[in-house]
TrEMBL record:
It comes from Intestinibacter bartlettii CAG:1329. One of its GO terms (biological process) is proteolysis. The keyword Protein biosynthesis does not apply. HAMAP family: RadA_bact (MF_01498). One of its GO terms (molecular function) is zinc ion binding. This is DNA repair protein RadA. Keywords: ATP-binding, DNA damage, DNA repair, DNA-binding, Hydrolase, Metal-binding, Nucleotide-binding, Stress response, Zinc, Zinc-finger. PROSITE patterns: RECA_2 (PS50162). The gene is radA. GO terms for cellular component: cytosol.
């Protein structure tokens, strides 16, 4: 009897070795190696090129065909996908446990099934009765929606040919396994095989496929990075688990922009889309309280108004504490240093806390001006007028730099009834003739703080 050969595979990056190692030399992760049975290598095939084989062609002779899409009837998701689901595309959805991935995909299944398209919802984690309970809570009821509690790839493929759906939901790819591979479900080999199989099915049969991917404790998608390279679109579900707002971002999209953002609110009836998130997110802003300011930011092509809060208080310890939620900690530290150096605010012995209300994370540099003005307001205990919006990037010398999409930011402020907006001087020429809102251009940080805190 031939000896069974095994290998050890890193579950983080896919690195292979003949012996177990405590630390992966490729991705530097600890305790990530799992033993797998090494597949026998078959003799290398020799391909003979004939007339029926695909041939290299000139790019000028290729006729571009516009991709065929169908809507999910959920505007926020369609926005992120680039206008709807592309026929034959493979979409990977990742997010923390309990964030609402399965809820969103069940709602997508229902919406698509109600348009007379067959949908197959494959679950390797829940039984059919569990899925039915969630569907009943969400009000899902359609004859075109099929539920299949199975994780064997061979069985799934056989039923696909029989049902011939137009949309497949796989929840999740980590639970699906191929009987041809001896390793356990969730290992690198099984994830690669499962994703490859669904990719071939999507392209060959023209079936759009959504696969759910688990995430690691660091927030990255579990499995090799190859998983994200194989799919057409990667969506990340974000939000605090105990906060009702959820964000859907596209970090990869072969059929659209990767800058778009979808905003939802988790309720008893499922995820409800917020078509005007600005109005909701700033509705609870307190009046006549220092340290609270409305900022204008842009996610993709969508302008949003958010409330940013700062609290500055004397420290009780030898070293002042800095805490930020929703904004980059290092960026906050940099802006506090600019405040001390250029404005002269003595905050080295003050605890500083920054928070973006609603649990939303913002990386755009235009929130810089909002952060420094909120900190100055809290430090001096001077409230900021409730009808003022600020936007602008702050440089290390205290200058206010121009931001993008200034017309859209101003239009959003006008729509929600704000009277004033503070913008960088370099953006002023493009919008100085806009009526209905007072536009205040500023050159530097000192000028902006004096204008806003003076009211």
């Amino acid at each position: 009897m031939a000896k069974i050969r095994t290998k050890y595979v890193c579950q983080s990056c896919g690195y292979e070795t003949s012996k177990w190692m405590g630390k992966c030399p490729e991705c530097m992760k600890w305790n990530s190696f799992v033993e797998e049975i090494e597949e026998k290598k078959t003799k290398k095939e020799v391909f003979i090129i004939d007339k029926s084989s695909s041939q290299p062609v000139s790019i000028n002779s290729i006729v571009a065909v516009k991709e065929e899409r169908f809507t999910t009837d959920i505007e926020e998701l369609d926005r992120v996908l680039g206008g709807g689901i592309v026929k034959g595309s493979l979409v990977l959805v990742g997010g923390d446990p309990g964030i609402g991935k399965s809820t969103l995909l069940m709602q997508v299944s229902s919406k698509v099934a109600n348009t007379n398209k067959k949908v197959l919802y494959i679950s390797g984690e829940e039984s059919e009765s569990q899925i039915k309970m969630r569907a009943s809570r969400l009000g899902v009821n359609s004859q075109n929606l099929y539920i299949f509690a199975e994780n064997n790839l061979s069985i799934i493929e056989a039923h696909l040919e029989k049902i011939n759906p137009e949309l497949i939901i796989v929840d999740s790819i980590q639970t699906v396994y191929s009987p041809e591979i001896s390793s356990a479900p969730g290992t690198v080999s099984q994830i690669k095989e499962g994703t490859s199989k669904f990719m071939k099915i999507s392209k060959k049969m023209g079936i759009s496929t959504f696969i759910v991917g688990h995430v690691t404790k660091e927030g990255a998608l579990a499995g090799p990075k190859l998983l994200e390279h194989m799919v057409d679109t990667v969506l990340y579900f974000e939000g605090e688990r105990y906060n009702s707002y959820r964000l859907v971002r596209a970090v990869k999209n072969r059929f659209g922009s990767t800058n778009e953002l979808g905003v939802f609110e988790m309720k008893d009836v499922g995820l409800v889309e917020l078509t005007n998130p600005s109005q909701v997110l700033i509705s609870e802003k307190p009046k006549d309280v220092s340290g609270s300011v409305i900022i204008s930011t842009v996610e993709g092509t969508r302008p949003m108004l958010l409330e940013l809060q700062a609290l500055v208080a004397p420290t009780n310890f030898g070293m002042a504490r800095r805490t930020s939620t929703g904004v980059d900690f290092n960026r906050v530290a940099l802006l506090l240093a600019v405040l001390e150096k250029r404005i002269g605010l003595q905050i080295q012995n003050q605890d500083v806390y920054i928070n973006v209300v609603g649990g939303i994370k913002i990386n755009e540099p235009s929130i810089d001006l909002g952060i420094v003005i909120a900190v100055a307001s809290s430090f001096r205990n001077i409230p900021i007028a409730s009808d003022v919006v600020v936007t602008g990037e702050v440089g290390l010398t205290g200058e206010i730099r121009a931001v993008s999409y200034i017309e859209k930011r101003i239009a959003e402020c006008k729509k929600l009834g704000f009277k004033k907006i503070v913008i960088p001087r370099n953006n002023y020429e493009a919008v100085k003739d806009v009526k209905g809102i007072e536009i205040i251009p500023v050159d530097n940080l000192r000028q902006a703080i004096n204008i806003v805190l003076r009211g």
